[in-house]
Design brief:
By secondary structure, the chain is α+β, with helices and mostly antiparallel strands. It is built from 10 helices and 12 strands.
Length: about 300
């Protein structure tokens, strides 16, 4: 149960998460019968998930893109998970997309976008600066202050808890890429944020589960050298949208990814109803390559 969700959307919905199961209908049924009974006894009428724990954590069942390797802080599951849930009566609630692109395809970006970015930025008075990892707590507070209202209309949004913010601070400290992460400011006031993180999975794969005796050094070195990154978060305050800030973020990421030797990017996760962001991405050589589905069922 999620009491913050209850406050925003009513008290009819309960959640499941951290779903792992063999390709066994009876085993899956037993799990969901128990979860459904627990929620129904507490007044819930619908079960929704997977949410591990909330909408800004790892969510969904991968239903498309199994042939591609998992990227940091995103889920991966066997192809039978979706059909297994559907066999038990679960229906699609919403899809979230992961976009993928190669930095070498930057030539496919319309050059006019870069010129347009300069014009719009100048007109709106916006300044882009890198996130400063020497002041992580300050930068995380800025991300928090911008992200909450910027995403307040997104599907399933609930305010971050203090624990979730602390997790963000930890992630920023460990794997944020300052050269690909920015704060947009107008008259020194933050109005937008864009955060990218290194794909730690590349480094973890190289050590094959063995930290000792030298695995941790290999992992640390691999993390520093990874050429794959995930653009994980972007938000612009509503009153400052349609001023070119989103385009400025994207073009700056393209420029710096090329400059610093990155090879590929995943931009995720973007809910299917976020048409503004999805329309912005149409100007760039990226495509939907993975789909994560949230399922629901009456109980």
């Amino acid at each position: 149960m999620n009491h913050l969700y209850d406050d925003e959307y009513g008290k009819d919905t309960g959640f499941f998460g951290f779903f792992e199961c063999a390709n066994d209908r009876e085993a899956a049924k037993a799990l969901f019968d128990a979860a459904g009974s627990y929620l129904k006894n507490r007044g819930k009428r619908k079960i929704l998930g997977p949410m591990n724990f909330g909408v800004y954590d790892e969510i969904g069942i991968l239903v498309q893109g199994f042939e591609y390797p998992p990227i940091v802080m995103n889920l991966h599951n066997p192809p039978y998970y979706g059909p297994l849930l559907e066999e038990l009566g679960f229906k699609k609630a919403i899809d979230w997309y992961a976009y993928h692109g190669y930095v070498k395809d930057h030539q496919k970006v319309n050059p006019k976008l870069f010129a347009l970015k300069d014009i719009l930025v100048k007109r709106s008075g916006v300044r882009l600066r890198r996130i400063d990892l020497k002041h992580v707590e300050r930068e995380a507070a800025i991300i928090d202050a911008v992200f909450k209202p910027a995403w307040s209309q997104n599907w399933g949004h609930v305010p971050w808890t203090d624990r979730e913010l602390a997790r963000l601070v930890d992630a920023v400290k460990r794997i944020a890429l300052p050269e690909l992460s920015f704060v947009a400011e107008i008259q020194d006031k933050p109005v937008g944020v864009a955060l990218s993180i290194a794909d730690a999975n590349v480094a973890i794969k190289k050590i094959n589960g063995k930290l000792f005796p030298f695995g941790f050094l290999t992992m640390f070195w691999g993390l520093k050298k990874t050429d794959r990154f995930r653009h994980i978060l972007m938000g612009v305050l509503e009153e400052h949208r349609n001023k070119g800030i989103e385009i400025a973020f994207y073009t700056k990421i393209v420029e710096n990814a090329r400059k610093f030797g990155f090879r590929e990017v995943e931009m995720s996760n973007i809910v299917e109803t976020n048409f503004s962001m999805r329309n912005s991405l149409k100007h760039f050589p990226v495509r939907i390559y993975k789909t994560y589905r949230i399922y629901q069922k009456e109980i």
